[in-house]
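--- STAGE predict ---
source: upstream dedup step, 1 unique chain passed
mode: sequence only
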Amino acid sequence: VVGPEVEDAAPNGNPAVGLDLGVARLATLSDGTVIENPHALRAGQRKIKRLQQEVSRKKKGSANRNKAKAKLAKAHARVRNVRRDALHKATTSIATRFGRVIIEDLKVKNMTKGGGSRKRGLNRVVLDAAFGTFRSMLEYKGKLYGCSVEAVPPHYTSQRCSSCGHVEKGNRVSQSRFLCLSCGHEANADLNAATNILEAASSTDSLNACGEDVRPVSDLRVRE
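--- STAGE serialize ---
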């Protein structure tokens, strides 16, 4: 449980922002703010692995095994605390600075489903970033501080140029670099995505105001 049920606070009057969650960076906002990922599990992984080996070497039921298990549990608890502390600080900062936060409607269960050894490594990184917990905390803090949290479909936000609207897989040159193959616009890939996420909400608002059907970002032009 992230927190007790609270009534929505009055809107705080602060600006809107798009937010892109990632594994290299925990979050990148469309105003250029970057929140680094604490990588809590990766930082404590070596110690946890060593303690797991110690537990397996101890005789089952022995006092030494119980001591080793207690040390392992303490190491896991530290990872959880580091991660949770970082998420609390990040979500409080965002909810108090902005009046409307637009995020992608990510399905973490689908993102971490199946795969071989390489996929398991990615799954571990995604779970360490704790996207689901981040969203839950942000929604809870939003109610406390008068900040609305809205989710938009994640279609093509990382492939669409935030400058000209061109969509192509090759626009995403690397994990961190975006270069539009149509107009030449270059930007940090996460910042470009965050800008698209904010734009997706703006497009939805505009279409709703006209009484038309809402089109996801995926309906924007895609190069064949």
